[in-house]
Every structure is written in structure tokens, then in C-alpha cells.
Amino acid sequence: MGNNQNTTPAAATTEAIIEHVDPATLVVDTNVRTEASVDRAFVASIKERGVIQPVLATRDSEGTLHVRDGQRRTLAAREAELTSIPVYVIATDAAGDEAEVERITDQLIANEHRADLTSTQRVQAAQQLIALNVSRTKIGKVTRLGSTKAVDAAVAVAGSEAGINGLAWGLTIEQAAILAEYEDAGDTEAVEALTAAAGEGRFDHKAAQLAATAGDRAAIRAAAAPLIEAGYTILESRPWGYGSEYTPLSRLVHIETGEDVTDDQVSSLTREYLAADVDVEEVWTDAEGLPVDESRIDWSLDEDSDPADTPREGCLDPRTLTEGVAAVVTWFHTNPAEDGLETASARWNRQHNQDATLAAATEAGAVTETGEIDHEALAAAQKEKEAAERRQVKALNKAGLAAQEVRREHVRTLLARKTLPKGSGAAVARFTTELMWRFYDQLGLTRQDADTRKIAADLLGGDPLALGEGASTERAQVIALAVVCAAHEANLPKDAWRGGHEYNRNVAAARVAYLRFLADVTGYTLADVEKVVTGDLTADQIDLTA
């Protein structure tokens, strides 16, 4: 019976002992673990190393050993054709149902508290075996990692803080190896991005995205490294907008000379005021690796072009060039004045203001015989000019209100008619169409001093809808015109002479269209202040002395 030489019924075991037994002689009894299949890798491991952890068994009254825990080890040993495995035989006096209760209890305890190796433990074991010069092929088998590539990944993870952390978060060894690779390359941006993505369940998508831009980040790190070593600030993102504290060096000039500031002057500037943005741009290089000007590339040619096609004269064939990326450093300054610098626009404004001040002083007679500006006289002249402008605004606004009163009275008289003025039907139709097509937003104007609904009711002497009930066709046309006129009146405040809306040109266009309609179709005479609105006069041409 294999290496179990006991062929007669054995006496009851009184204490636990280790025996070496032929696995073919063991009886694999019922187990709470109903699935006991063994895979090829497990059988290979048993065949190479034998059964390392003894099988747990009990001996019946006839001396037969019954496997209580270790059925998979027993079956794998049989398949590996082993003739001896260690068996830990425990004593038991239980019989019948009591024996079954004991078997089930022991099996539950053995399986319930057995924990599989964690991924962290597995990769650390691989790392230790590598250190002992065990082959990757053998490590793949004993750790069940599989391929040598998987072993390399495991070893990389074991030596990486980011990789080990990734396993603790639930990443696979393959995913953790990606973290380890970026950590080893010094790509903290990728490590941080993948860490955040892992928490959101988007690790694989982010990893694919980062892989596509890995070359860009490597170029940026290589360009930034010497700048960091030299003590320069590297910006995390490029500053935008003219209100930023960072001014691009390309916008600066020397205050004293007006000459542009160039990158080769960086070393002469105060380091603490400088910051660099490092980015990449697409570059094309020729066969010798030299960059080429993209404007010289004939982009009409591509891989689908006829091989016999040649580039235009003086141009390069993109099919003979290599596309790549190159790092670009953009310098910014946080305190230009301290380095004797200013923006080109500030210099222009300063010079322009000087010229404008001289012109204003000349106009005001505030320039001395020696050509110096009399600033006191200039200030007095400017103060008087501003006061005159305020008086003009008040006078024109009053004129606007007076014109509005006369104009609306004219419109009321027009709208009191039972029919439109003779021969005006087509003009009214065009006027109405223009409002609905170009100036429709005026129908909803509701300012404190300009409410289309209220103005329409005032011009008609009642609600347009109520007045339209039972009205004749001709009268209904007049009522419709009232709504159109009211919309335009809402767009003609007292200060319409100032001009139209800064961003909406339709405001001014609508005012001109309305006043032209009243003058050309209804016989209304425009006031001077209204002629400013139509562009026939300027505000300065109006006599405000009356």
C-alpha cells in the first residue's frame, strides 16, 4: 500500500502524527467545498515540489485514512503520480452523526479562515526571487503570474511606492505596473492623473490617453529640468489674458531704448521675477534630423498621393519628412518695471498721451512761448470743456424730450384715422415687415421709461386688442400700425442722439428707419435733435442757445 506499510487494521490514533502515505490509498470523503477541480499549473507545482502542506486526515477502525482537508492536494498528487505525500493524522473517537458533525466543522474552519495571497504579497515574492537569481520563467510558474512579461511587471510594482499603493486601491498588477513605470520616469503628472482616475473607475481610459501624450510630457520634463536646477519657476499652466500678473517677455520692451526684450536676455533679468511655461509644439525634420519651416511643406501631398507626384517648386515633400514634437519655453515677467521694462502697448500709450496732451494744450492755448505746457491753464481749460459738455448733454436731452412730445402727438393724430393715409399701404406693409424681420426684439421692450404696451395704449387711447374687436379692415390696419410705432417709440429715449447700442447695431438702424418712415410717409417734420439720430446733423451743429 505505497509507503504506508501498515496492512492490518491499526489501533485507534490517540494523538496527531505525521505519516507519509501513497495518495492513491487515501479516501477523499465528502467536503463542504463541493468543487475540487485542479488545474494544470497546480498539478505542475505539486509534481515539481511535492505536497508542502500536509493533508489533514482521520483514520477509521480499519486503518483507512479519510481526507478531511486537502482534497485538491490529494487529487493533484495522484495526477502527478506521486507515491508519497505528508498526511497529518488526527485522533478522533467520534462515530456516526457525531463524526459527520466533526468533519463538517473541521472543514469549515479550515476553509473559512484560509486567505489567498494578496497581489502585494505575490509581487513582493517575485521581487525576492529575482534577487535570488531565480529565472523569470520559474518565477512565473511558482507565483502563478504566468509570462515573463507579467513577472517583470510584478517586480516593477514591488519596487514602486505608487505601484504598491495602486494594488492596495484594488488595481490589477498590470495597472499598478503602469503607475510604477510613470513613477520611475518621474512623470508625476501621469501618476497623479491615474491616481484620480482610479478612484473614479476610469483608470484604463486615462492610461490610454496618457500613453498617447507620453512623448510630449517627456519632452517637457527634459526641457524643464535644467531650468528648475537653475532656480527658475515653472508654471503649471500657461497664463492667459492681459489682466494676469504674468506678462509675456514677447510683449515687453526696454523703457530706455524701446527695444524688444528677447529670450537670450533672460540671464540678465532678475530671476525671482521670471517664470517659464514649458509646452510642446509639432515639428517636422528632414532626413538629417534638422527642423524645417512648415510654410515650405507642400501639404497637397500625402501618403495617398501618386508616388510620382513631386512638390511645388521651392517646397518640400512631407512624405520625406518626419513629424515629431519639440519643447518650447515661453518666458513671463512678474515685475517688469524693476528690470527697466514696460509693455510695448504701455510705451505707445505713454507716448500717445504725451502727444495728445500737447495737442490739447495747444488747442486750449496752454503752451508757453518756450513750448512748455502750462498744466494749470490746461487743467482749467479741460474743466471748462467738461462743464460745457455736461451743459450740452442736458440741453440735448431736454430737446429730445420736447421732440418726443411733438412726435407722439403727431403719431396720435395719425392713429386716430379710420384708414391709413392714401397711397401709404405698401410703405406701411414694408415698415411693419421690417420690424418683424429685423427689429422684432423691440416688441418686448419694458424699461421704466419705455414700455411698448403702455406706449401703444397711450397712442391709441386704449388697449389695441380691445379696440381691434369688431373694427373694420381699414381701421384694423391702423391699430396694427400703432403697435409697430409703439415698439419704435420705446427705442427712442430722450438721449437717442448719443447714438445706437455699443454692441447691437440694430438699435440705431431701427431708430433711423422709424424717423425716416414718419418723415417720408406721414409728413412729419424732424426736429434738429432727431436729425442727429438720423445722421443728418451732428450734436455740435445744433444751436442750443435758444
TrEMBL record:
Which Pfam families does UniProt cross-reference here? ParB_N
Tell me the ranges covered by the ParB-like N-terminal domain, including all copies. Answer: 19-112
- Name the domain of life this protein comes from: Bacteria
- InterPro entries in alphabetical order: Chromosome_partition/occlusion, ParB/Sulfiredoxin_sf, ParB_N
Q: What is this protein called?
A: Chromosome partitioning protein, ParB family
The protein's organism comes out as Williamsia serinedens
User: What lineage, starting at the top, does this entry show?
Assistant: Bacteria, Bacillati, Actinomycetota, Actinomycetes, Mycobacteriales
